[in-house]
Design a protein that fits this description.
Two copies of one chain form a homodimer. Chain A is 39% helix and 19% strand. Chain A is an alpha/beta fold. Chain A is globular. Chains A and B meet through strand 2, strand 5, helix 3, helix 5 and helix 10 of A and strand 2, strand 5, helix 3, helix 5 and helix 10 of B.
Chain lengths: 520, 520
Amino acid sequence: MTTPTPPASRPHGTLKLRRVAIDTYRENVAYMHRECEIYRAEGFQALMKVEVSANGAKTYAVLNVVDDATIVGPDELGLSIDAFGRFGLEAATPVRVAQAEQPRSMDAVRRKIAGERLTQADYRAITLDIVDNRYSKMEMAAFLVSSGQNGLDREEVLALTRAMLESGERLDWHEPLVADKHCIGGIPGNRTSMIIAPIVAAHGMLMPKTSSRAITSPAGTADTMEVLCKVDLTPVELHTIVAAERACIAWGGTARLAPADDILISVERPLGIDSQGQMIASILSKKLAAGSTHLLIDIPVGPSAKVRHMREAVQLRKLFEYIGDRMGLHLEVIITDGCQPVGRGIGPVLEARDVMAVLRNEEAAPADLRQKALRLAGRILEFDPDVRGGYGYAIARDILESGRALGKMEAIMAAQGGQPQSFVAGPLTFETTAQSGGVVTAIDNYIVARIARLAGAPMDKGAGVDLLKKLGERVAPGEALYRVHAEYRSDFEFARAYAQQNSGYTIGESAEAVVSYMDL
Amino acid sequence: MTTPTPPASRPHGTLKLRRVAIDTYRENVAYMHRECEIYRAEGFQALMKVEVSANGAKTYAVLNVVDDATIVGPDELGLSIDAFGRFGLEAATPVRVAQAEQPRSMDAVRRKIAGERLTQADYRAITLDIVDNRYSKMEMAAFLVSSGQNGLDREEVLALTRAMLESGERLDWHEPLVADKHCIGGIPGNRTSMIIAPIVAAHGMLMPKTSSRAITSPAGTADTMEVLCKVDLTPVELHTIVAAERACIAWGGTARLAPADDILISVERPLGIDSQGQMIASILSKKLAAGSTHLLIDIPVGPSAKVRHMREAVQLRKLFEYIGDRMGLHLEVIITDGCQPVGRGIGPVLEARDVMAVLRNEEAAPADLRQKALRLAGRILEFDPDVRGGYGYAIARDILESGRALGKMEAIMAAQGGQPQSFVAGPLTFETTAQSGGVVTAIDNYIVARIARLAGAPMDKGAGVDLLKKLGERVAPGEALYRVHAEYRSDFEFARAYAQQNSGYTIGESAEAVVSYMDL
């Protein structure tokens, strides 16, 4: 039997804090040497969660055990780059380490897994624990799956929306009407916001647009706007620009708005799980936190869109309306055509080119992008009590055709530090051609988006796909359907190999085979 | 716009493999320097999963990005300790790194989340991907939650059991009757296996008992047996001992039996989620892989046991019987009293002391532990076709009282390298006393187990709780209810602080208030 001799005295010791130059993304990791006295005494184990505290500050991290004193010594406690930054203390600060209990709100998650309905207090507790970094990735996955699919009823979606909204700061623009729009996503090239915001602001309405970067798509609005100017603005810069221009088009990632949502997304994305309730709570809490009072939601429907059937779109619309009403948000939902990409370019540079072509009223500008942007902008203009119902579209068109939208866009770009420049797509290109002649009867959004990503978008701004044929257009055998741009040889090869296996295009006999989203 | 110049030539390069002395437990982690050309080219991101390959070997790991060349240099690819060991290649071997696709079987997990029934092929694919380390912790959590609670119907439990069994090796003892037992757990001090195995082996039946170490409890059978002898045996040692003695009591962790289960448990445990179906598949696949042909399942029922109601126990019994029958296992279920700990000691040394007292027929030996072990051993003896139904208990008692069980245990201990020794419990002790006089009407299994763990069990073998009073016994005010042993001062203080808040004991007026498990 081994009975270790108890050390002469073992007060709750401290360790010296150290920054370990390892980037573990959103997961806090603590590093402890295997010979560290506290590690041995407490019976810690790798992957356990520990609580690190000093000077009233506290953080939680997953433990990794180190056998190399050059990484952390036995008298040190290492924190991964982000965890160290968020903890905010100097290196060598004495810290205490204890075993972290499982967050208390995991009891609620277990009840949810067991099929119970959770209360507002439960969602509040879960959200706060997530923001405090008390949930491991596994625990977040458990929460997401338990409330996935139809796991949440509408009162729970409301409770989750409130809890997420309360988890962070909330902007107040001190204006009665703050407009915004959001698209459910899944449609490549759908960069309407960059046309709508200038139109709406030119009309005088306030539209401080903060957007995301691409998560699984080849470009988010923030990625595309970044081709033209800076999108990573400080809160002060953002307010100054909006005060001057009535609009901005910025990246929303720096503000601490609904932070629980940002953390959950870092798990939701790699898992690829979808939940209507989670999605609605996520979108609406973000918009409310950003100070929006009026919101237009765009739900594209198509065979390869996120929403594939009209009935699902209508169900989603009702849930949006219900939560919006209960949260005091003026919310409208518009169901749009999601049967193919919008515009021609897919990828930041190619999309920015299309947007600017529409704003400049160029003849070659993609008609569908222009049309959709005007339709949505018209609906937003009708949020203005002074605009007569049904007149929004005409006003939006006037603003666009008169050049006022372009002028507003240029002012916004200048305010965001933009420089005039030309659009340079990736220099490595190949074309995918039609095997046979006929009519384009289907374009798979997912596949063309995947090709654009493989080609390097959104990391490589100039990478992407440029569509040369759209639904209903005639093609001759061997005619090019789209051109792929890449900046790096390996990306180019990946994209080409993928496109050779599946072009994403279906060529049929006649235009009658083209499906309308209204029939889905 | 930033258009990086493509490097002159960028063949799919290789990196030099390096062992990074960081223990990340069961999660494979790969370390790549931020300036590494492949990292930059591929657009990897921290926490992405990468595929590392060389010489036909392949492994999957989660990526951490490093800014410190002393950990990994720009031309190196680091792997965490376990990942490096499992990969099995020499340091400096050139390896290729690519972005890992999400495991294909995650499609099935998503279907399960959506409420679908999965097929045998789905479970096979999931299990194989898990064993290949293709699942991240998050993905495993998603799978566990999706099939948690009543998420699996019985055909699915059968499919999962088969898939887990097939995921690893399978022992064959070349005998028609290989007996085993398993307890659902949750009852501290329940060390019947260490009495049953010697009795059964003394009768001549084969009982190669492999047990687990404590996961969330203060001691597993392997932890307690380790007080007496070695439990970490090689497959060859194990076979030699079983051939000579007809039994062993060893740790089951080294064999690659149902490895998918071991990996899933590493997620299930910290999450604290329970699933009947998962549990049954886990237990039965392990037992079948270990070559058992006859199995006795013990389901203790009690207000603070894992199973709290008779109806739940009966439901579980039926599911066990169904799967057992379909898998060709002769399986019996026995429902036992789980209203309080079994025996007196809780913690490895204290439990080993109780077990040996029973085997030595000492007068002071805990009667309940003796009684329960005889009852279970009797049922196992009745698996022997030559034992008349109902006579098993008497045979077991004869074997115990004659000293043949003790003789067999001593032979097993000697074969497993045990040395005679005395039992030394932790030197730091305190007693929890009754606030008022009366009768012990309830003992909370969970709370006394927690106190034993806080005191240091099972890591510190001598730590634990020694119960001085059990259900139905009279106590005077101030009389001791139990004694806590610890080896370290800090553990001692933790345990004392916790016990002061909640002793785990309820003192009532009369013995009539004691609940029987039969009424639950």
